[in-house]
Amino acid sequence: MNNVSNSNNMNNVSNSNNLNLDSVGNLNFDSSNVDISHDNHSDSFDGLFIFPLQSPVELTSDEELVPPSNEMFVRGEGAVTRPQVPVTGTERPVRSTRLKKPVRYEDYDLSDSSMFVHNSEYVEPSTYEEAVSGPNRSEWLSAMQEEYRSLLENNVWQLVDRPNNVNIIKCKWVYKLKTDSVGNLIRYKARLVARGFTQRKGIDYSETFSPVVRHSTMRVLFCIANELDMEIEHVDVTTAFLHGNLEEQIFMEQPVGFETDKDKVCLLNKSIYGLRQSSRIWNCKVNSVLTSNGYLQSQCEPCVYLKKTESD
């Protein structure tokens, strides 16, 4: 076996000591003493295929041979292997489509069923009718009454006569089961949200943008607090969006199950969850409260406010 030829550019390898078979039938190739020559039609040598000792593969006229799995493709100092698959036209072997588990999830054990609420009795209803007709009717009614009282205490709306030729947005109840860290049910939560997708731009809202703090900013603040041995305090504002005052005049239908007069609608005084401008109004409220108390907004991070006192 002195010559091995490549049918594409007719390159020749001439050395009887370069190709040999080991005890298990694998082909070994020593490229250190290879005399390579090519024809005059090729200006450069791009690589060569070394085929093993095996029976030839029969091909049809419209097929070409992809080198076998134990064949070596030599380019410079590297060598890679390629499978032998007869292909038609421009088709090539398809890579495996099997989904692989992301590396970042390898440490997660999702076999513990206590993380989830599997009991069919504890199901989050999607509509008001499902909530009041299910096995946990009393719990969901209590949660809705609590939310409704909170809306009235915050003076979120006032009932007015239904206007003519005005866009009146709808609302719906959203139900959520609150669980602890191990999956135990601790609370039934109901929230009234507006169907903001029925709002009309330029009439019911204008600007909707509000900044969001970056994770990198949070990490920097935690590092500074750790380095300076400072204490970190966390504050959770209950029904935060209800503290912002609306600038636009928005009418909303009364909540399902709490209608007092069919001819009345809610004229919103405060921002409510679901409105397109709710997050912006809340951000403006926070900004006004903090700046009025002597805090300065960072120019590079709009969600960070600084205040320096004499004792600092």
Automatic annotation (TrEMBL):
Name by which UniProt lists this protein: Reverse transcriptase Ty1/copia-type domain-containing protein
SUPFAM superfamilies linked: DNA/RNA polymerases (SSF56672)
Highest taxon of source: Eukaryota
GO biological process, one term: DNA biosynthetic process
Domain spans labelled Reverse transcriptase Ty1/copia-type: 154-308
InterPro entries linked: DNA/RNA_pol_sf, RVT_2
Organism, scientific name: Euphydryas editha
